[in-house]
Amino acid sequence: MQELAHLTAAEAARRIAAGELRSTELVAALIAQISAREPEVQAFAHFDPDQAMEGAKAADLTREKGEPVGALHGVPVALKDIIDTATMPTENGTPLHAGRRPVADAAVVARLREAGAVILGKTVTAELAVLHPGKTRNPANPAHTPGGSSSGSAAAVAAHMAPAALGTQTNGSVIRPAAFCGAHALKPTFGLISRWGVLEEAPSLDTIGVFARSVEDLALLTDCLAGFDPRDPDMRPAPRAPMRPIAMSEPPIPPLFAFIKTPVWEKASAATVDAFAELAETLGAQCREVELPAAFNHVYEMQRVVMLSELAVSYGRLYDAGSSQMSAVLRGLIEEGRRYAAGDYIRARRAQEALWPVLAEVFENFDAILTPAAPGPAPAGLDATGDPSFCTLWTYFGAPALNLPLFAVDGLPMGAQLVGARGEDARLMRTARWLERFAETGS
């Protein structure tokens, strides 16, 4: 049972497709793992073992009949509880949406079902996917935050309660909890995956992300999820080659990394400074430090203007109707967003494209940016979700970012973040596989 619960999504899919494993066996193992870990970790907002098992039985029956199967056939996937599901509640982490039952699946849920995945359950989110934490605890140490806002998805994967899960990122809500909990995660290029049917927070920044146990898993799920959807206004029709073959291939030459400390480097813990200094030294000529121009110092303020201005619009009706049922943190952010002038917002939006060419030039000379995923390991305490500032730049510019759980400090995971050029998600994953192997073997 425990061996099955530790399978990667890709390995589970291979074994199910080959007839070596039944989906019901895998789901039974995960149910046992959830029974053992969930009382402490509390990753799920909704989990019905009977419903999960029915989905697995249906997947097994489809295969037994010889019907076509998808790339994730029989593989359980958990969903952040801001992603609409027609067969499960979606309550968005707020009492204002208690008992909410969507009438249709979100686009990503429909794509998962088309690929044959079993929807395992809904994972805990911070309140309306912002900052006020939910009930989830860090699987590595329950006295520490799991991060947020995709806390339940990161914790469920790290605690082997789900082989894969979906989350969302508007600032640091995928990469940070993945780093804190010790999961692989990808926040893809902005506009790669449809957000139709997902809670809208700040539409100029909101991005669907993936948690899993390997880079191959990330590529597998992203291939299943990506694709043009006219219902998402930030998507554009364009041909796209499958990512998994590229991600699993060998780089033609050893990749080059641009080590960027970013303007918030003073927030880095001593453990982070030491870990990245050692990694950069070990990489040798494959890693060079790059300093961003002073204009990037203002990105954090501009990102806040964009995020909070849009958040204030997205949640304005909820605030007007039920602010007393919101946390003080969320109320304050909405009120701040309402105070920004239109000119502030327009300037902050224009800067997203005005500054991007500087980063594009970095990617002409380097395969990926190497930078911390968070200031350090997960902080102690459960009343906050940690500092997202090491993710802010990359989300603001819509670049793909990936967490690799390369380090640990006092039993707590600590992540290395890789950032790629827009649209180069597959290449970023290929580079991440190279770095992960290098970190393990030194070659």
What is the 3D shape? globular
Strand content: 5-15%
Spatially, the strands of the biggest sheet line up as: 1-3-2-4-6-5-10-11-9-7-8
- Unreliable stretches, pLDDT < 50, 5 or more residues? none
What's the story with the biggest beta sheet? 11 strands, mixed
Helical amount? 40-55%
Number of helices: 16
Helix/strand class: alpha/beta
Report the span from N to C terminus.
34 Å
Gyration radius over CA? 20 Å
| Topology order in helix (H) and strand (E) letters | HHHEHEHEHEHEEHHEHEHHHHEHEEH
Write down the overall mean pLDDT: 97
SS elements, strand count:
11
Structure report:
- 42% of the residues lie in helices and 13% in strands.
- It is built from 16 helices and 11 strands.
- It has helices at 2-5, 9-17, 23-41, 49-64, 107-114, 151-158, 175-181, 215-225, 243-247, 270-283, 299-314, 316-322, 328-339, 342-365, 389-396, 425-441; strands at 44-46, 76-80, 118-123, 165-169, 184-187, 207-212, 257-259, 287-289, 368-372, 401-409, 412-419.
- An 11-stranded mixed beta sheet has the order 1-3-2-4-6-5-10-11-9-7-8, with helices on both faces.
- Helix 3 (23-41) packs antiparallel against helix 4, helix 8 packs antiparallel against helix 16 and helix 11 packs across helix 13 (328-339).
- It starts with a helix and ends with a helix.
